[in-house]
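User: I'm curious what two different proteins look like when written out as structure tokens. Can you demonstrate?

Assistant: Sure. I'll show them one after the other, since each token string lines up with its own sequence. Here's the first protein:
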Amino acid sequence: MIGLRMMETSKMQYFIGLSCVTHLLFMTVNGFYTSSDDVIELSPSNFNREVIQSDSLWLIEFYAPWCGHCQRLTPDWKKAATALKGVVKVGAVNADEHKSLGAQYGIKGFPTIKVFGLNKNSPEDYQGARTSQAIVDSALNSLRSMVKSRLDGKSSGSDHGRQQSSGSKKDVVELTDDNFDKNVLDGDDIWMVEFFAPWCGHCKNLEPEWAAAASDVKEQTKGKVKLAAVDATVHQELASRYGIRGFPTIKIFRKGEEPEDYNGGRTRSDIVASALDLFSENAPPPELLEILNEDVLKKACEDFQLCIISVLPHILDTGAVGRNTYLDVIRRMADKYKKKMWGWVWAEAGAQMDLESSLGIGGFGYPAMAAINSRKMKFALLKGSFSEQGIHEFLRDLSMGRGSTATVGGGALPKINRVEQWDGKDGELPIEEDIDLSDVDLDDIKDEL
């Protein structure tokens, strides 16, 4: 009897274990999320409709079921989705199953989290902690930035996304035997030119990626890099001139240089990344602006991913030579990091006290430097020396996502005073008033003492 009960117990344990294994296998094959979760499962069949054409802010996790970090993130991701329900959309893509969707957004590791905000065609990487609280805080900051952008009159990226989803080629320049030289060889812009054949299957696959990338590149380079297409079966003179033997062939044209073959990836994100590299390599160093009014800081911080703010000693402390030495250091670093396309500004110590206070500047003395991400309202301070080496190490760590950050005081860019532009000269001490003592009776003063 005892033996029979032991056998029944063993069988029960076996079936329980088998059930757990089956459940684990089910989760591994089908992903981490079910219809009962507040996380929306996304795939190539619904991604465009749910995300790109949406006016909502989306946080999307790209994961692989076998990834240990993804498994550990799952409960926090679900918790964040529930907390943000009705406010921010939270989604997940099984990028191991839907490899094309992962490749479209350049996913190379798991989990990768991207924020699809105002411009759905230019999602941002989420760099915060992987806890539910940090995810929710970041989502609300992104939502605040998106609402502010709309208030400032910036259009939603959802309309742009609808154009791209319909295969719009409005930003791809059509080149022919007749207009090629005038547009490409005689112009000052950088051109990425696709030579295609209408019957080519690979060309058809590239077409929507090329069209979407063309719009992104036009926007992000202000039209300085252009994407174009040549029907090589019609314009055979061009195809022969550049030795086109296979389709699609992509060539890069810079003014005064021999064309070179493009050997990068064929997804929108790959093409855009390559175009931005070409743009930054040929772009002049970013302009270093003095903070003279609110518009200068707003443009530097809101039009770029990061703005680098330097606060230099008062002109009476350094003179013109000392100040120009600091400015030259900043300009060299701006040139070194020009590929990042950051905004660069500076102010004199004491001229913008609200700004200094919001960034905690001054405690380390002057000069000082801070980097602000205005979308997240986070900043990092230079703790090392204000030298090329010290600033390089600071900016390098920022580029790699390292270093400590804090929230900008007040959660918004502070009030900026309107000041006069530095005239490039040494400072002058204020002129003291001459005091006329001719009418003063010194004897009376002596008696009072």
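Here's a second, unrelated protein for contrast:
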Amino acid sequence: MSASEVVVAAAATVILCGGSHRRRRRFWVRPTLRDKHMHHLTKVFSDDEALINKKVPRELLLQVFSYLDVVSLCRCAQVSHYWHVLALDGSNWQRIDLFNFQTDIEGRVVENIGRRCGGFLKQLSLRGCQSVNDAALVTFAEMCNNIEELNLNYCKNITDKTCTALSRHCPRLVRLDLDSCAQIGDISLKALSDGCPHLEWINVSWCDNITQNVGVDALAHGCPRLKGFVGKGLKALTDPALISLAQYCKDLEHINLHGCSAISDRGVVALAENCVMIRYLCLSNCMHLTDTSLVVLSQHCTHLETLEVAACSQFTDNGFQALARTCHMLEKIDLEDCVLITNATLNHFASGCPRLEKLSLSHCEQITDEGIRHLGVSACSTEHLSVLELDNCPLITDASLDHLLSCHNLQRIELYDCQLITRAGIKRLKSHLPNIKVHAYFAPQTPQPAEGRSRQRYCRCCVIL
């Protein structure tokens, strides 16, 4: 970060903390070229009767400022007293993202944001601001009761008290990100269900205190408009929770259950039968699922665009054949570690998924050149396929790369630990697709023993033993 950027960051922090104009000057360091330019601007506009202030109406300046980010607003606030007042007007602070200042943001900053912005604030991101605690967010919730989107990702110090305050004071909340807030539990979900009926999207990934299905059940009852549920790593989540979501939140479109290892076909079938508008579904590392889930998804969720099922080791060609017959909107498919699939699955995708853009087949050890041939001649490959991952596919050879020469939109291919791929094959592929990024690894060759020396058969320890 340059010196001027440090100054801007410090100035932004002070302004948000309610610092005075005199106090802000303490943050100036040795001037750079940009700083001298800013000083010149300050001199030009230091007179509140400057021409621009006379000619441009206050409302128009406010409209211009409304398009600026936090740093730009703080720069404008240093130009003159008049601009200071305009830049810090609450109407300009409807959307705030403090991720770039995450190490400096403390509770008092959040409290001051609440006082300065009040009911104007609609979106706030505190992602990564680990110093923020419940006390600050309780004050914030009381002040900013029109907040619609709140990102508290990785705010590790907050507890159920924060969600209780949001429930009491923020009825318009639509999106809430609580990813990796380890102290958030079932009490939070119950509170949100009571006070935030307009909630449409929630992320409670890695919230280890969500240990019972009653929390998700309450959320489903109280937030029927829910369209997105992200619950990665919720190992205690079981089928009854999914059945509640399916029964009361029929508009769900985005569901991520990565690592929810306790769920089975019963929960996924309920979601598929009731939430027919699902477009994104992640079931990676849900090891108990079988082809039954894929078959029911194929029967009801024909709008599916993204399917991630890495490490679902019981899925077979039969399940993916059913999916390819009806889910023609599929664009991204992750089959890493689906060890039972063969070339037949690729044949089905080639004929049934014309929009396919990204496909991961890493560790699918039964895939051969014949499967890639089906993919290479399909409509999806010649028009849409941009990413193909083939790591640890031991039967893939240079012939597969030749089958991909007509894939003009292919941007990246992964070939780590594909032992039968050669440098010559990659060179030929890159000559036809010069913009493609090929990720591969070739182990260094073992050096030949020097002439005249016989390699010792046993080490000294072996001889002694």
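A detail about the second structure: The longest helix spans residues 3-16.
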